[in-house]
Amino acid sequence: MSRTNDTQERRIYKHLQTAGTITTLEAFQLYGITRLAARIHELRERGVEIHTERKSVKNRFGETASIAEYHLVLNQNRTR
Question: Is there a contact between 34 and 12 (Cβ–Cβ < 8 Å)?
Fold first, then answer.
């Protein structure tokens, strides 16, 4: 894995710890990350439990669009 991906993973993980959720739009606006799903996949491969919730939102044309919102799965028996 490249250093850039590792840094992006850390930013996403820290964001999830502090904010609770993240969407692709937030990842792009806050961190310039354009491939959030790839970073989430990599975090999951490292053992981080992340839940995906599908949400319906209106796009700029007033049409319904589906987005993914990612959440850390809080496991009280585990410490990070």
Answer: no
